From TrEMBL:
Gene3D superfamilies: 3.30.450.40, PAS domain. This is GAF domain-containing protein. Residues 308-360 form a coiled coil. Residues 150-316 form the GAF domain. It comes from Saccharothrix saharensis. The lineage of its organism: Bacteria, Bacillati, Actinomycetota, Actinomycetes, Pseudonocardiales. It holds the Pfam family GAF_2.
């Protein structure tokens, strides 16, 4: 319903003074879960109401004989007093379904939903003298519907493999929206060894607080979450200011405005630790059974999301390792092919060189053996040509022992190439008369 013509489940039809039916109605609704009240006159004075009415608006406001606007001033800004005025003026009844109303103010404020009916009460002459209101609170039903819708949405996120941070953040915000009072949700994720907890999601906690507890150890007495992770069971701290578990974190909690913390461990199917799910409050508070049930439901949902994330991460890691192995194998095969091709090229080059050497040898063998040394330079040398030397460029010449030795020492890359005695062997086995000179060290 809109606030302007707001329909308030607590707007109760005023009883007609002295009308015996009003007492009968009070008896009929006295022990009912339905709220009932009778308002009288244009100022809607609360004449009578059942216990459910006062339980709904707060026992601290349980009194009659005062205008409803004075008893429940928060209704005026929500349009419900104006709606009562309209029903009183026209005499037309009004029915509302799942109408939202914020009851009370300050620390007692809470959101509620109602189905209700407003009916005008008339005297014997048909004049409207008050309004009767009968309503049934549907808050729990409404919250249950919202809870199931949000829970289904989270499961759909998990099924489509949404990022874990997105799922956990959405879950935390969902619980904060569904809780009847202010609550701040935190999810911490455990290391694989279960010894430390790291930030997972905490959309409403201050950044400095999240950073300070990121990486805390698990253990007995380490706040609510560290202890819950260590014990593998829920830990409820109703007053952080006095609980010894918070000795090391009390100043931090005070800076963040936190007064109570209930932590539930998030466990895998095999019982291993996945993390913790915590609900913080601004004032000291003990949980109700509905709070604990809510924590259990979403701790289970968080476990499903985290395990799914771990499985997906393991699959991606395995695929990455397999891809790396395939890449390494491809690289090795490519290198093997390149090595084989290089070996083939070298073999071809060696064969070609051998052919050229054989051809050169044949060509050299066909060249007549000169009688005199050709290594004497411009002045010439008349000594017999006894040794053949060659260099790496393919040049060769015959010379005497003296000039051949000088060429070997000077050119360095020259070598003896005597086909009859196998090159160097000819130099070693030359005539005894030249042995001493020939045995000098050679370089080249």
């Amino acid at each position: 319903m809109t606030a302007a013509p707001g329909r308030h489940p607590l707007d109760v039809e005023p009883a007609v003074v002295g009308h015996p039916a009003q007492e009968d109605l009070q008896v009929l609704f006295g022990q009912s879960i339905a709220v009932f009240a009778s308002l009288t006159g244009p100022s809607h004075v609360v004449e009578t109401a059942n216990p459910a009415f006062f339980a709904t608006i707060g026992e601290h406001r349980a009194r009659v004989g005062v205008p409803l606007a004075e008893l429940m001033p928060e209704l005026a800004d929500q349009g419900f007093i104006a709606l009562l005025d309209e029903v009183y003026r026209t005499g037309e009844p009004h029915t509302g379904r799942d109408v939202r109303v914020v009851l009370d103010t300050g620390p007692h404020a809470r959101e509620a939903f109602f189905d209700f009916t407003y009916e005008a009460r008339r005297d014997g002459e048909g004049t409207v003298v008050g309004i009767r209101v009968i309503g049934v609170e549907t808050t729990q039903v409404k919250h249950a519907q919202q809870l199931m819708a949000e829970h289904r949405a989270l499961l759909e996120q998990i099924a489509r493999q949404a990022p874990l941070t997105e799922v956990l953040d959405g879950m935390a915000r969902c619980i904060e929206d569904l809780a009847p009072g202010e609550v701040l949700v935190s999810v911490l994720l455990a290391d694989p060894d279960g010894r430390h907890l790291h930030h997972g999601a905490a959309p409403s906690l201050p950044d400095f607080y999240n950073q300070a507890i990121d990486g805390i150890a698990t253990g007995e007495g380490v706040g609510s979450c560290g202890t819950a992770a260590h014990r593998r069971e829920p830990v409820v701290v109703t007053d952080i200011a006095t609980d010894p578990f918070w000795d090391d974190f009390r100043d931090l909690a005070d800076r963040a405005g936190l007064a109570a913390c209930w932590s539930t461990p998030i466990l895998a199917r095999d019982g291993s630790l996945l993390g913790t799910f915590a609900m913080y409050h601004r004032t000291p508070r003990a949980p109700r059974e509905s709070d604990l049930a809510l924590a259990r439901v979403f701790a289970g949902t968080a476990a499903l999301a985290i395990e799914r994330h771990h499985d997906e991460q393991a699959r991606r890691d395995a695929e990455a390792r397999a891809e790396a192995a395939r890449a390494e194998l491809t690289k090795a095969m490519r290198a093997e092919r390149e090595l084989r091709a290089e070996a083939e090229r070298r073999a071809e080059a060696a064969a070609e060189l051998a052919d050229r050497m054989r051809a050169a040898e044949t060509a050299q063998a066909a060249v007549p053996h000169p009688e005199q040394c050709r290594l004497g330079g411009p002045d010439g040398c008349t000594a017999p040509a006894e040794l053949k030397i060659a260099d790496a460029w393919g040049d060769a010449a015959w010379g005497c022992h003296s000039h051949a030795e000088e060429a070997l020492l000077t050119v360095r890359s020259a070598f003896i190439a005597n086909e009859e005695l196998g090159g160097l062997a000819a130099y070693i086995n030359r005539r005894p008369a030249r042995t001493r000179r020939a045995e000098r060290p050679l370089t080249g």
